[in-house]
Every structure is written in C-alpha cells, then in structure tokens.
Amino acid sequence: MPMQASFCLSPRYRLDDELPWLEGIDPSRHYWIKVNSDHNLTVAIPGLLTSSIDEMKQAIRKFRSLKPGEQINLIRAASSCKIYCISLNCYAIEAEINNALVWHLFDQETLDSLLMSAHPDWQCAAADIELGRRLLVRSLERATANKS
Asked: pLDDT at residue 83 above 90?
C-alpha cells in the first residue's frame, strides 16, 4: 500500500477569530491550539517561560523588534520552539504534526497576548489545569513507548 504524505495548512490565528482555535494555556505555558479549529487535531506548543518580570520584558521586546526573515528561539528544559517573523504583522510558530513541520501563523497582537502568559504571576484558568495533566500523560506514554 503506498504511503500518503499528509499536508497540513494552518490558518493565521487572530484573537477575533469566529472559530475557536485556542483550547487553553496550561500551567507550564504550553499553548494548546486546535489546528484549523479542528477539535480532533490539537497540538501543545511550548510557550515562553520566564522566571522574572525583567526576563519576560526582555523576551517581549525581542519579539516586538523582529523584522521579516528574523527568528527567535524559545528554549525550555524539555522542549523548544521557534518564532519566525514572516512579514509585517505575520509570525509563525513551528510545530510538528504527524511527523511533519507545520507553521502556525499569528498576527502580532495574538502572539503578543500568548507571550504575556509568561508573566511570573500569571495563572491559568482552572479548566486549563487538565491540559497540563494531558501533556504529562503524553510524555509518560512516549517514555514508555521508547523503552519497548
């Protein structure tokens, strides 16, 4: 049977979208995004995580100063992601879906809002705590599968 390559095209997510695409932001600052607003295809993208307000401000300034063609890396202990400036008011966060790299496109206001959740005093919504548990279960399943 021939193997079919899957191709995902992500829309440009905006805060004022009619279709709900943001499932939530978990306590560890992962952005849970429904790809193309599809409830069956949700990804957890590692977000900005800082330990101080000064560190957060520096990261936000760096993001806001990006020019087309530039990128920044959000490095975390167990994961990372890249934010690319595609053009004026268009940014991409790279993620892997079905073993393929996909760029999720955002306008500046939306990505700026997501990055603001890096504030040390920010707290996720009570319902989003469950998203963190789902991420933990996923990582435990992956560790078990690797040992087999």
From this structure: yes
